[in-house]
Write a structure and sequence with these properties.
Radius of gyration: 15 Å
Distance between the termini: 28 Å
Strand order of the largest sheet: 1-4
Oligomer: single chain
Length: 71
């Protein structure tokens, strides 16, 4: 099976010393037939769960996985 789409966070890094990043993947993945999608952080404000004090708080990946597991 071949990967056609890759979804990553804007702060994604990989390789030695975290040298690879979203910009690198965007520039190079097309040569392999892969479309890279960069997902911006999900904040409480963008998910309609904000109070004034935590509207800029970013949902953690653990929190998102927990929500997906719960349905």
């Amino acid at each position: 099976r071949k990967i056609h789409h890759l979804f990553i966070g804007a702060d994604f890094h990989f390789a030695k010393n975290r040298a690879g990043n979203a910009d690198w993947l965007l520039a190079h993945s097309g040569a392999y037939g892969i479309t890279t999608h960069v997902i911006e952080p999900l904040t409480h404000a963008t998910s309609n769960q904000a109070s004034n004090q935590d509207s800029d708080k970013i949902h953690s990946s653990s929190e998102i996985r927990r929500c997906l597991e719960l349905g």
